[in-house]
Amino acid sequence: MNQKLMIFAAGVLAALAFAALPAVGSAGEYAADCENGAASCSGAVVGGAIQLRNDKGEGYSCASVDGRATVNNGTSTGALELSLTGCVETITGFKFSCNNTGVAGKINTGAMLTHLIYLEQNKTTPGLKVTLPGHGTETGGITLSCAGFSKKLLTGSFIGHFSNPNCGTFQASHAVDFTESAVGIQRWSTATTSGSITDLIWNNDSGGAYTTTAITGSTTLAWEGTKVKLTC
């Protein structure tokens, strides 16, 4: 098994551990069901351009994204791994190629834990919370390197919303949009507009203060071998 698959498998196993918990972890979460009744179901992630920038307007731009998504049947948890290609920095204006894989322009997030959450108190907007690997630990997150000299440690969580949830019906795919409310500020930052803030942050090269960061772009989760129902 290659390193990428090992990382993704580890993330999926971590997510599956949550299956032993009640179907929905909190009042702000909802569950997903696999039509074939399997313990979990997965699919491909496909998408176009993805942008990552902080509240100063500094960031990264990637031409496209793909990856894998998994949901655990009857629960609110799952896993998501994204592979972004054609990535360049927008910090200096020179658009140096950036990566965390050793391959120019390619960023891989590793397996990230996901939660299905409601974004508003009236529970009319279903969303997806994504947490980077190792968040909350000293070395958590991913380190982005540009042209071999500029490095940023990216960590935390971010939230998107389903643009076509079709709640209560089995679907072959679901689209997730990640948007900003202002430069570098994620549109959605809490479950049911209350509780602790969910934030994506990075620090500078010297390990100084972290800066609020947002990711923008659209992805489609194309389920394979079965359909998925969001019970939102």
What is the fold's blueprint, element by element?
Blueprint: H1 3-16, E1 32-34, E2 40-47, E3 50-54, E4 59-62, E5 64-72, E6 77-85, E7 88-89, E8 98-99, E9 107-108, E10 112-118, E11 126-131, E12 142-146, E13 150-162, E14 170-171, E15 173-178, E16 180-182, E17 185-186, E18 200-203, E19 210-223, E20 228-230
Antiparallel strand pairs: 1-20, 2-5, 2-19, 3-4, 3-19, 4-7, 5-6, 6-9, 6-10, 8-12, 10-11, 11-13, 12-13, 13-15, 13-18, 14-20, 15-19, 16-17, 18-19
What this model shows, in words?
Strand 12 (142-146) and strand 13 (150-162) form a beta hairpin. The protein has a 15-stranded antiparallel beta sheet that branches. Mean pLDDT is 86; it is low at 1-25. It is built from one helix and 20 strands. It has one helix at residues 3-16; strands spanning 32-34, 40-47, 50-54, 59-62, 64-72, 77-85, 88-89, 98-99, 107-108, 112-118, 126-131, 142-146, 150-162, 170-171, 173-178, 180-182, 185-186, 200-203, 210-223, 228-230. The longest helix has 14 residues, at 3-16. The chain has 232 residues and is mainly beta. It has one domain.
Keywords:
single chain, 232 residues, three-stranded antiparallel β-sheet, 20 strands
What is the compact description of this entry?
By secondary structure, the chain is mainly beta.
Number of strands: 20
Main sheet characteristics: 15 strands, antiparallel
Oligomer: single chain
Task: Describe the global form.
Answer: globular
Q: Structural class of the helix and strand makeup?
A: mainly beta
- Helix-strand string: HEEEEEEEEEEEEEEEEEEEE
